[in-house]
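Quick one, T. Sequence first:
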Amino acid sequence: MKKILPLILLAGVGFLTYSCDNSNDDPVVVNPGQDSDTLPEMKDVNVSLNSSNSYSHVELLNLQNTDVVLVYRKDPNASNAWQLIPKNYKLINNREFGYNFLFNREKVEIYTEGEAPGTLSSSEAGTYLNNQTFRIVLVYANAGKVVGKNTAKVKADVDYNDYNAVVKYYNLDESKVKTVNVN
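Structure tokens:
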């Protein structure tokens, strides 16, 4: 009995030491904004949307399963302002016009919706259809890797509506933007 008592006492102290561990069980994000199969990339597409292209444009891509596509439209009334699409605009006479996009692994299609584009006035067409610049931004779908005792999804701490925040978060180099002129 005298030989077993110290073993039981040692096991009890070990159990208490392990169970009283006050380390934080919150997940830790390692390498935010990084993944192993993709580099963030940006591409500008200059296009006029008209009846000959069905008021849309298709740009070929090569996406991984872990990529996300963001599409921004350059505001023609501001020097360097980008608006995330989908985006709708109120036109005169209670009409609406907007942009949207679809993507898969091979392509992204940017298109108009709402008011029939052919019914826009020449001023509206100049603002919303002619010489439009869209910036296609490829980023990681999984912005971080979760490490810790608890498994939880990590949401990127970035507002995708804020183009400058996206550039900063993903460390994108705007000087390396590729430009495609469709016009």
